[in-house]
Amino acid sequence: MATTLSTTAAQHVASLSKEQGKQCLLKHLGWQPFNPELAMRQDIHLDFLHDCLMFAVEKGFSWDQVCVAVEFSEQLLQESIGKSLPDTLELFKQKSEDLGFVLASRNYKVYAEYVFLTFMRHYRLFQFVFTHDRESEVPNVQLEIHTPPSSCSEALKTAKEKRIWEYNQKYEAVEQKERDCAEQRVAKREKQAAEAIQQKEQIIKTVTDTQQQQPLNKEKVGEIIREVLQAHTSAMVEKIKGNVTDMKESLELKLEKTSIPRPPNMGQPPRFNTKPKTPTVTPVRKPKSPKEDGKKSTGSSRSRSSASKS
């Protein structure tokens, strides 16, 4: 191992799940990160050391003994590469003297049995993995590349990003809705105006017919006035309702415009002034009284007489 495993690191690795523990062990061993699918040899190596560590922890080894067991497994694996099984057994026998002194009799027997049931049993497989490089399989596919035709060059120059194009489409849809609502309002007002004119003509016709049939009295005149007032009031109510509805639709469409997600590179969205414009007050000229006109004419006549005298 490039770096000796500390007891703190062993405790940290043992407290994690297998995948997280393997990544933590990789870091404490000083290895570089790798892709398990592309570097299967390193993944098997790391898996072997992690299993050794967890076995020692589960069997109740002290943390110092856990670190020694992992270090022993690493040395046994590295020094057995390319050797036969009898040579590896001899190597294990030589290193076992120091290992037995550290692990003590009980833990040494448990760990030796583990090594023989795992590493030694699959020794030929370990040798194959660590002595044969994996053949890299790189697919070779012939692909044809078609460039866009020259007719698309101008269109591509004026093309927009997808986000901007989608924003413009949504914005244009709301504006089209505004135009449709405006046309509907104009048609509705024209219809109301035509109905008001028709109602007015109907009232005039009724008054004329009544007057021709019999002279108008006080009660009949009052009834006609009430009908006229009722018609005028109904027309004004409908007009006010229409104005309120139009303002509500206009505000809703403006809110819909501002609520469309706007791409950051387009800057701030346009803001709309929802407050009605304050009408400008035109000054009214007061008519001059006859006295003021008389004073002005007297003053002008006096000035003309004094000028003639001089």
Automatic annotation (TrEMBL):
The entry's keywords: Coiled coil
Pfam family, one: CLAMP
Coiled-coil features, chain-numbered ranges: 157-199
Region (Disordered): 255-310
Organism: Mizuhopecten yessoensis (Japanese scallop)
Protein name: Uncharacterized protein
Domain of life of the source: Eukaryota
Compositionally skewed regions (Low complexity) per UniProt: 275-284, 297-310
